[in-house]
Prior knowledge:
Elements: H1 2-14, H2 16-56, E1 59-63, H3 86-94, E2 99-113, E3 119-127, H4 129-135, E4 140-145, E5 155-158, H5 159-169, E6 171-173, H6 187-191, E7 197-199, E8 201-206, E9 215-226, H7 230-233, E10 236-240, H8 241-247, H9 253-256, H10 262-269, H11 286-305, E11 318-323, H12 329-343, E12 347-351, H13 352-355, H14 358-395, H15 397-405, H16 410-445, H17 453-459, H18 470-497, H19 500-506
Parallel strand pairs: 3-10, 5-9, 6-7
Antiparallel strand pairs: 1-11, 1-12, 2-3, 2-8, 2-11, 4-9, 5-10, 8-9
Amino acid sequence: MRIAFTIAARNLLRHKGKSFVIGAILFLGALIMTLGNAVTSGMNRGLSENIVERFTGHVVIISEAQENPNILFTPMGKDIALIRNFDKVKSVLSTQDYIASYLPAARGFSFVLTEEGDIDFAMLLGVDFPAYNTMFRENVKLVEGRLLAEGERGTLVSQGRRTRFFNDQNIWLKPAGFPLDEKNFSDEAKKYRDKMIVKDSLVLMGASGDSTAFDVRSDIRGIVRYEFLDDYWKFFNIMDIETFRECFQWVTSTDAATDLKADTKALIAKTENLDALFNEATVVQAKSGKAELTKTLKKLKEKSTAPKPATDAGAYNVVFVKLKTGQGIDTAVSKLNAGFKAAGAPAQAVTWQKAIGQLGDMAGIIRGALTGFVLFIFFVAIIIIMNTLSMAALERTAELGMMRAVGAQKRFVTVMFFIETACLALIFGGLGILVGAGAVPVLKAMKITAENNILQLLFGGKTFTPYLGVSDVMVGVIELALVTVIASIYPIIVSRRITPLDAISRD
């Protein structure tokens, strides 16, 4: 073995040109693979930070009746099935020790009605806002007005949706109780300042195939943006959960604890003789007044006589779940689904990638493209090194033939060739990994930003932040080792076939 090392070192020094060419290829391959691993790892960390930690959580709970797990970016705001018997779901979530936190919420598509007769739409996210913003690391940033306080009613309109609303309807939204702030005007708003209609509240009508449409007026408390991936989340306007439930005619906490006043109860008691309510002193048109009052009283009576449901019963259609550090997402999903089944809870758990639908698919495609690029470099390096080593072996036919003639066995030739390739990989490939590792913090310090949506997914956010951990370096070392081993196989086979007779015939 010592002789093989000595001869291998001599050969590398003797054939400096070929050694340098092979070494340069190994250096570039190791450098590119290291940077590729850093970009892929940075993207995964960025997506985890900006999607999982700041918007969806690791796991999303939806109704058992929900067929399509894509519940955040559904086409044209398609309905999401309600989670029935949420108390059972809550009991399962509360007993799982691998869950760090969870937040029930409601996602819905609503129409926006205006006094001007136009109809627009808005994507709504109904939540307990203080709890939501705490859980998702204050990803919601204030642009104008103020954020929703605990128990406060109102809507936070995204800055992107406000711009779109103005472009569609010529209506500029501002927070109620705050003056018009012209410094935040879009370019279009500045151009048509004299013609714009300013509003500080919205009339929203829930669009749902499973419930009665009902319009509610909600004051705009603030204009907000999302700190990370705002171009994707800007479609979501945040509303307090109670107003959301009223908009979609779900069970509300008010419904669950209806306490009608004595005069209202007395009025309901007289509904059997509604004609008595419309005497000559009543200043309404009898027919229309009677119809409207009948409808109102009937609704109140139903509320007062219906069984009082729990506050959470049927009032959510999505739950965001965060796991404790180190917990596997797929494992948690399996455990939760088993727990729901055992408890008879009509719910299912899905991963965050499935819940965000096309966005998750797009991120997966980009991640796959990056991985494919690294593998492409991997195989190109193998082919080039293999060809170079094979040519070097053939050029050394006389030398190898003489070695065989004086007693060198095929095993000796194999070890010698492998040592030569391994030394080049260790020196030049190792240098490539070190240079790549040194380039990562430099690239991160450059703070390269992107406004393009696709690039933001590639970066895992607006800023290019490659990351190279110990595991990523180990992956690079393993990739380099595989390149070395695979690239050596064919040249070794070529060298083992050389005989003393080949050396004589070559001379």
